[in-house]
């Protein structure tokens, strides 16, 4: 005969889900994860279960504008085909020999080259081939911040680093 094998009106025998011992129902409680545990096995839910994450604000406190926003810009006047070394612009103000030029191509990329000589009218001779077609109306960027220049990978040398 076990320790719970006796009559108690309104009480019944249960098995503890944690230790497996036979107990009276008055000696057991329901846990937070729906187990019926005796008073010796019952534990409260851990406080770490109630911890909530704090959102991490990753915004930049001082945002610096993109270099494109401060560049001079113009557009392509007539469509320039792939592998072309000249491009017709709507305006060549500020473009001179050796100036960097960023041409937005039809594939969405921006091809950086340089003016190989002073413009002839509105035609600029490029220092490298166009890798893709540039349709009339595409943007052309001319850096104007403190005479910035950009190099293509083929122009880069060890001494230039």
Summarize the biggest pleated sheet: 4 strands, antiparallel
Question: If strands are numbered along the chain, what order do they take across the biggest sheet?
Answer: 5-10-7-8
CATH class of the largest domain: Mainly Beta
Q: Strand content of the residues, in percent?
A: 15-25%
Q: Topology of this protein?
A:
Blueprint: E1 13-15, E2 22-24, E3 28-30, E4 36-38, E5 72-75, E6 86-88, E7 100-104, E8 110-114, E9 123-125, E10 139-142
Describe this structure in words.
The chain is mostly beta strands. The protein has two domains: 1-43, no CATH class; 70-142, Beta Barrel (Elongation Factor Tu (Ef-tu), domain 3). Helices cover 0% and strands 22% of the residues. It has no helices and ten strands. The chain has strands at residues 13-15, 22-24, 28-30, 36-38, 72-75, 86-88, 100-104, 110-114, 123-125, 139-142. The strands form four sheets. A four-stranded antiparallel sheet has the order 5-10-7-8, with no helix packed on it. 14% of the residues are buried.
Can you give keywords for this protein?
rod-shaped; four-stranded antiparallel sheet; 22% strand; Elongation Factor Tu (Ef-tu), domain 3; 0% helix; mainly beta
